[in-house]
Amino acid sequence: QREKAAVRIQAWWRGGRVRQTLLQAALRAWAIQCWWRSAQAKTLEQRRRLALRLYTCQEWAVVKVQAQVRMWQARRRFLQARQAACTIQSHWRWHTSQTRGLLQGCYEVKASHLELDIEILMA
Protein backbone atom coordinates (compact mmCIF):
# COMPACT_ATOMS: atom_id res chain seq x y z
CA GLN A 1 0.00 0.00 0.00
CA ARG A 2 2.75 2.38 0.96
CA GLU A 3 4.72 1.43 -2.08
CA LYS A 4 1.74 2.19 -4.36
CA ALA A 5 1.30 5.54 -2.65
CA ALA A 6 5.01 6.28 -3.07
CA VAL A 7 4.82 5.32 -6.78
CA ARG A 8 1.76 7.58 -7.20
CA ILE A 9 3.50 10.51 -5.52
CA GLN A 10 6.60 9.93 -7.61
CA ALA A 11 4.52 9.77 -10.79
CA TRP A 12 2.69 12.93 -9.85
CA TRP A 13 6.00 14.67 -9.07
CA ARG A 14 7.60 13.49 -12.31
CA GLY A 15 4.49 14.52 -14.29
CA GLY A 16 4.61 17.99 -12.73
CA ARG A 17 8.34 18.28 -13.53
CA VAL A 18 7.73 17.14 -17.11
CA ARG A 19 4.87 19.62 -17.53
CA GLN A 20 7.00 22.39 -16.04
CA THR A 21 9.91 21.49 -18.34
CA LEU A 22 7.58 21.41 -21.35
CA LEU A 23 6.09 24.78 -20.34
CA GLN A 24 9.57 26.30 -20.01
CA ALA A 25 10.59 24.84 -23.37
CA ALA A 26 7.42 26.24 -24.97
CA LEU A 27 8.05 29.68 -23.44
CA ARG A 28 11.65 29.64 -24.63
CA ALA A 29 10.55 28.56 -28.11
CA TRP A 30 7.98 31.36 -28.12
CA ALA A 31 10.69 33.88 -27.08
CA ILE A 32 13.01 32.63 -29.83
CA GLN A 33 10.18 32.85 -32.39
CA CYS A 34 9.39 36.42 -31.30
CA TRP A 35 13.04 37.36 -31.61
CA TRP A 36 13.28 35.70 -35.02
CA ARG A 37 10.17 37.48 -36.29
CA SER A 38 11.51 40.86 -35.11
CA ALA A 39 14.91 40.13 -36.72
CA GLN A 40 13.14 39.21 -39.96
CA ALA A 41 11.04 42.39 -39.78
CA LYS A 42 14.19 44.50 -39.25
CA THR A 43 15.92 42.80 -42.16
CA LEU A 44 12.86 43.33 -44.36
CA GLU A 45 12.70 46.99 -43.33
CA GLN A 46 16.39 47.46 -44.14
CA ARG A 47 15.89 45.87 -47.55
CA ARG A 48 12.87 48.06 -48.18
CA ARG A 49 14.81 51.20 -47.22
CA LEU A 50 17.73 50.18 -49.40
CA ALA A 51 15.41 49.54 -52.34
CA LEU A 52 13.74 52.90 -51.76
CA ARG A 53 17.12 54.64 -51.57
CA LEU A 54 18.26 52.99 -54.81
CA TYR A 55 14.99 53.90 -56.52
CA THR A 56 15.31 57.50 -55.33
CA CYS A 57 18.90 57.70 -56.58
CA GLN A 58 17.86 56.32 -59.96
CA GLU A 59 14.96 58.75 -60.20
CA TRP A 60 17.21 61.70 -59.35
CA ALA A 61 19.73 60.51 -61.94
CA VAL A 62 16.98 60.36 -64.57
CA VAL A 63 15.74 63.82 -63.60
CA LYS A 64 19.27 65.24 -63.81
CA VAL A 65 19.88 63.68 -67.22
CA GLN A 66 16.56 65.02 -68.49
CA ALA A 67 17.37 68.48 -67.16
CA GLN A 68 20.79 68.42 -68.82
CA VAL A 69 19.27 67.36 -72.15
CA ARG A 70 16.63 70.10 -71.93
CA MET A 71 19.31 72.66 -71.06
CA TRP A 72 21.46 71.52 -73.97
CA GLN A 73 18.48 71.78 -76.35
CA ALA A 74 17.53 75.23 -75.04
CA ARG A 75 21.13 76.42 -75.33
CA ARG A 76 21.38 75.08 -78.87
CA ARG A 77 18.16 76.88 -79.85
CA PHE A 78 19.42 80.07 -78.19
CA LEU A 79 22.76 79.89 -80.03
CA GLN A 80 20.99 79.28 -83.33
CA ALA A 81 18.71 82.26 -82.72
CA ARG A 82 21.68 84.43 -81.70
CA GLN A 83 23.59 83.39 -84.83
CA ALA A 84 20.56 84.20 -86.98
CA ALA A 85 20.22 87.60 -85.29
CA CYS A 86 23.92 88.34 -85.83
CA THR A 87 23.61 87.38 -89.50
CA ILE A 88 20.55 89.59 -89.95
CA GLN A 89 22.24 92.48 -88.15
CA SER A 90 25.41 92.21 -90.18
CA HIS A 91 23.44 92.15 -93.43
CA TRP A 92 21.31 95.07 -92.28
CA ARG A 93 24.39 97.07 -91.29
CA TRP A 94 26.01 96.34 -94.63
CA HIS A 95 22.83 97.37 -96.44
CA THR A 96 22.46 100.60 -94.47
CA SER A 97 26.15 101.43 -94.93
CA GLN A 98 25.68 101.04 -98.69
CA THR A 99 22.64 103.29 -98.85
CA ARG A 100 23.15 105.88 -96.11
CA GLY A 101 25.39 108.87 -96.13
CA LEU A 102 27.23 108.02 -99.33
CA LEU A 103 27.46 109.88 -102.55
CA GLN A 104 25.41 108.32 -105.23
CA GLY A 105 25.31 109.58 -108.70
CA CYS A 106 26.63 109.32 -112.18
CA TYR A 107 29.01 111.29 -114.24
CA GLU A 108 29.45 111.77 -117.93
CA VAL A 109 32.45 113.09 -119.81
CA LYS A 110 31.66 115.08 -122.94
CA ALA A 111 34.13 116.54 -125.30
CA SER A 112 34.36 120.00 -123.77
CA HIS A 113 33.22 119.65 -120.17
CA LEU A 114 32.50 117.27 -117.29
CA GLU A 115 28.86 116.86 -116.27
CA LEU A 116 28.19 115.61 -112.77
CA ASP A 117 24.87 114.58 -111.32
CA ILE A 118 25.41 113.98 -107.59
CA GLU A 119 22.87 113.03 -104.92
CA ILE A 120 23.67 112.84 -101.24
CA LEU A 121 21.37 110.46 -99.45
CA MET A 122 20.95 110.65 -95.73
CA ALA A 123 18.67 108.16 -94.18
TrEMBL record:
InterPro entries hit by this protein: IQ_motif_EF-hand-BS, IQCF
Top-rank taxon: Eukaryota
One Pfam family of this chain: IQ
GO molecular function list: calmodulin binding
Protein name: IQ motif containing F6
Species of the source: Myotis lucifugus
